[in-house]
């Protein structure tokens, strides 16, 4: 029971730290505002159907950009610790590096998932105001896709920050990997995009009715697990 209380205390500690940082609210508000602009742009394209306007609002570079901001919050979860030298205090307070990583991962995942829901809500609001809404099955499918993508992207950012101990490197990598590195891999090797973490996960948004989306996020989930595992191992071994 004491162990359970310790874990809950660790989560509570991280949640309070996350919500008391002004940068958290600035970045999350920026993500929602950017998604509002993207949805507004597509809502004005009369040649598109209601379904197309909704789906296109979550495709390509726009999806990467709006999810980059909550990912930056995830990166800052470790980045601020190393920048201001508070990681040692955090580890001592939470009594172990494993609890620190678990608490950060859970709070980041919850934050990212809620942000994904907010992105869907903002887009639906814009579509409703313009008098066009997609079918409910499509809303549900895109909602699941966006929440999964936002959550996994946040965990990848957290894992990258834990591994590198550098917030700038982590953010640049999370942005550059899907936009530059994965593109170069596709062009240079003709590899199936379904094997590339970010590209594969983003395909969940465009999945046709009756398709099976559950294999698409696996590469990104695997990347998140590898980075978190590596970051956790290094955190336990480093002289923090």
UniProtKB/TrEMBL annotation:
The keyword Nucleus does not apply. Keywords: Membrane, Transmembrane, Transmembrane helix. It comes from the Bacteria. The chain crosses the membrane at residues 21-42, 54-79, 100-122, 142-162, 169-188, 214-236. This is ABC transporter permease. It comes from Lentzea tibetensis.
